[in-house]
Amino acid sequence: MKTGSDSDVDVSCASWRLGVEAHNLINWQTVPLKCQEYIASYLLDGQYRSDSKTVCREAYFYAKKLNLTNRDIFIFDVDETLLSNLPYFANHGFGVEPHNKTAFSKWVASGEAFALPETLKLYNKILSLGIKVVFLSERRLDQKDVLVKNLKDAGYPTWEKLIVRDPASFGGDDTFEYKSAERVKLVGSGYRIIGNIGDQWSDIVGRYKGFRTFKLPNPLYYS
Amino acid sequence: MKTGSDSDVDVSCASWRLGVEAHNLINWQTVPLKCQEYIASYLLDGQYRSDSKTVCREAYFYAKKLNLTNRDIFIFDVDETLLSNLPYFANHGFGVEPHNKTAFSKWVASGEAFALPETLKLYNKILSLGIKVVFLSERRLDQKDVLVKNLKDAGYPTWEKLIVRDPASFGGDDTFEYKSAERVKLVGSGYRIIGNIGDQWSDIVGRYKGFRTFKLPNPLYYS
């Protein structure tokens, strides 16, 4: 049984989370401290998985009704879309600690991120429809080898393209600009982006965002 | 105490609601029947108000930091933004019944919609910052007199413009096109849309959508 006070926190933390998902709360740095336990429960007790399932099912229902061509691609973001870094965030306060680039890079280098199960299902279904998949990642070029191995280990054996950030060719630190620029290149080389799924709004807005976009939940960080 | 089964419904109905708010589920006709009780509780037990408060506070925090000019406007949608039709929907199955235009028009003609309390606060704060407000409504020209009285009765005494649908000038039934076209006119006559709040994604996407947009929750209908 919750006390009145815990209940109030749950209500307001649920509002914070909804505000994030509906793109009302932007440019935030960390999860509110009072919401740490709420967010941990959200991620671990089934609601996060259920929310992800609803999004992935909708993406599949959409894709299977399309008249497809052989230049059609479905774009998947990587972190918190194909792969989960939850083990890292569970050890770092579930988003309430300021982002630690060094510690996170070390975690990434371990190559131990696991597949998000609902995205993995969607990936297999998209492939079974004959649609090519492109992975558009925030990871850097020097992290690519580890990422390739991590993706294969996690259950993603194949892809049309895996795009990572090359600091030499795109110096900016802006996800939105980077992803838009890469999508422009994809369309320029003849692909048609029929779908695009990510956990950040910066994945799914901007130029050539895709005929339809899908926002997976992510209450851990904003980029 | 919930049974296991009720709990599962709550989890999946929460995912349905999040899918709607994050614009993953689109063009839906009615609330899933199994979610009727869940949606009623959501609306009546405090979460809906808390979610609305988070959005309206963010809109105010944003607006108060701006360098304002005297041509700045903040756009408010009307139904389920300024005014609530909850008494109607409570009598019509909380969104699980197919939309009944005749019955809804009759309710609208009664002029008894009440102010959504968090939007009312935001309205007063936006006015106190010296920003003009424009109400961009789905209501028709023949419903305007009732709407004016309803708005004043509900606590909205003043506005820069109240825009309603004139079937003679815009025959289409598409909210997105209608609202985009009206915003183009506003910008054409010199206004600068610094903010735009509504409960439907069709209120806040498209041409001149506003420098920043805010999505209020609405699990009752999609338009």
TrEMBL record, chains A, B:
Specify one Pfam family. Acid_phosphat_B
User: What PANTHER family has UniProt attached to this entry?
Assistant: ACID PHOSPHATASE-LIKE PROTEIN (PTHR31284), VEGETATIVE STORAGE PROTEIN 1-RELATED (PTHR31284:SF19)
Keywords (A to Z) from UniProt: Glycoprotein, Signal, Storage protein
**UniProt cross-references to SUPFAM superfamilies, sorted A to Z:** HAD-like
Q: Which GO terms describe its molecular function?
A: acid phosphatase activity; nutrient reservoir activity
Q: What is this protein called?
A: Stem 28 kDa glycoprotein
Write down the CDD domains for this protein, in alphabetical order: HAD_VSP (cd07535)
Q: Which InterPro entries match?
A: Acid_phosphat_B-like (IPR005519), Acid_phosphatase_pln (IPR010028), APS1/VSP (IPR014403), HAD-like_sf (IPR036412), HAD_sf (IPR023214)
Task: Sum up the protein's function in the record's words.
Answer: May function as somatic storage protein during early seedling development.
Q: Which family does it belong to?
A: Belongs to the APS1/VSP family.
Q: Does the keyword Transmembrane apply?
A: no
